[in-house]
Amino acid sequence: MSTNESERALTFWPDGEAEVPTGPVVRVIYVSRSEVRGAVLNEMRRIRDHAVLNNRPYGIRVALLNMNGWFLQWIEGPQDGVDLLLARVGRDRRHHGLMVIHRSQGRPRLFRPWIGAIVQTPESDRQFDLRVHAQFERFNQGEMVEPTAVWLRLSAPPAPDMPRPLGRNPRVMLLSAQGAQAFNLLEWLALNDQRTLVRRRFAGSADDAPDVESDYADFPGYGPRGVRLVANARKGLAMGMTHAFLPEFAAVVLMLDGSAGRNLRLTERVLVACRQVHHSPLIVGLGGGEQVSADIQRLVERQGMPWMAAISPSARPDKTELWQAVEPVLTRLN
Ligand SMILES: Cc1cc2nc3c(=O)[nH]c(=O)nc-3n(C[C@H](O)[C@H](O)[C@H](O)COP(=O)(O)O)c2cc1C
């Protein structure tokens, strides 16, 4: 397994209530060296308690990540509030050497007051430091990108053999109407193509908050820009991280099954999430002929979203048949 692809991420508190902001906001990402020794989880929880209380009056939303001895914080909100927070956080002894690596004004991407994650990666601290400093250089040279691009570059960089296009490698989300079929298909495909499967687990903080998994693998061979396939859990659609990154997806593949009710419920959940983040990815209905119904297509098109059917000639397609049906769609995304 290549080092910077392999990671394990944990978020450990439930998302706050969704408040969908409108209008442009200031988006800042900084990195800092963590001084937290021992239980990072407990310290993150303490920070979370402050953030949830203090950020709201200023209309601030944050995502905080701890990885490789660094904090990465992504802050969004009105200019004054963001700068006040930066000044306050800069005095905190739990970290030092704060460096802003992204500042822009644009559409809000964080739709929850707080998102927290710890990513554990076998990548050496030295390698990660180099990537942090490379990002700092890019920022100083005036690079203009979305904050999501900076966040992904640091926390989930593309596999070394992925094409380096001008834009980014397309991302495609796999979701299944039932069970863990999206995860199984991705695992099977990664094994077949000898690609590294990166497994990440996001867990709720409360005892009754379920764990949420999100796995991905990069495939350089599909289309000129390659493709990252991300398998998500259905319940993960409600998570802040998923919302923030949903606009990064070129397509969402719905793996439909024999139950019309389940298929409709899955489609509805995806459409709601897309409405919340004002994003219209291509929705691909994948399955046997009967499973990819006109009802699903109507539902998607009624929301003005692009639709494509990837229908297998087999009534109950196995993984090979599913892949044969969807592969041409993915290749055409580029
Ligand atoms: C990496 C990091 C991120 C933080 N993020 C926030 C935040 O988003 N909001 C917040 O109110 N406090 C945050 N804090 C905590 C503040 O630095 C500070 O301790 C807290 O707001 C209490 O400030 P006060 O003692 O001036 O009330 C963060 C601390 C660290 C180390």
UniProtKB/TrEMBL annotation:
Any GO molecular function: FAD binding
Membrane-spanning ranges: none
InterPro entries per the UniProt record, alphabetical: Acylphosphatase-like_dom_sf (IPR036046), BLUF_domain (IPR007024)
PROSITE patterns: BLUF
Name this polypeptide is given: BLUF domain-containing protein
Domain of life: Bacteria
Lineage: Bacteria, Pseudomonadati, Pseudomonadota, Betaproteobacteria, Burkholderiales
SUPFAM superfamilies hit by this protein: Acylphosphatase/BLUF domain-like
Domain BLUF: 25-117
